[in-house]
Amino acid sequence: MSHPQIYPMDTPQKKLKILAASDLHGDSHQCQKLADQAVNEHVDLVVLCGDLTSPLQTKNLIKPFTDKGKPVLLVPGNHDGFATGDFLAELYHIKNLHNSYATYNHVSFFGCGGANIGLEALNDDEFYTILKKGFTSVAHAQKKIMVTHVHPSGTIVDRIFPNAGSSGVRRAVEQFKPDFLLCGHIHEAAGVEDMIGNTRVINVGRQGKIIEL
Fold first, then answer.
1. Residue at 2 is within a domain
2. 17: which strand partners?
3. Is the pLDDT of residue 160 over 80?
């Protein structure tokens, strides 16, 4: 498991600009486009919400971002596997948020990768327990962002793709009340946003989303 990481501090008044994306599935061309966007839009941090690799393509998926000097946080998706998430983090000296956390400026991140399907499927209690561990380390942060691959149950996404969400992730959102939940997994829901209480839930999709806070 990768160790918690604290990124360099900026002034607390400075807004943090994030580019978040998911479900790239080995598309190195799209990764390059997102990296260019990160530079052009002066993004401070890149967050990747899983399903980054594919059996046919695993090269140049993270490198476009690190080549441009952009810090990267990730969680693995069900198509990546947990070992691949650790491998990418170690290879590119970036942070895997699965079962961990990181702080950048005034914003803290905690996460859980994987999904509720596949060979390494997590059950709802496992999702909740992993997210609780990360939250405990950032509970007093000024702003908090939860990062998962799978979306919480009972949101708009479940109307698009029924029964695909996790009640464990939803329980974590309701209890820990992060400012944002960034996720992916359901391609048809890319760009869809919802609210759980005061938490803004975004399926960031492969085209990416800019978040500023």
1. no
2. 212
3. yes
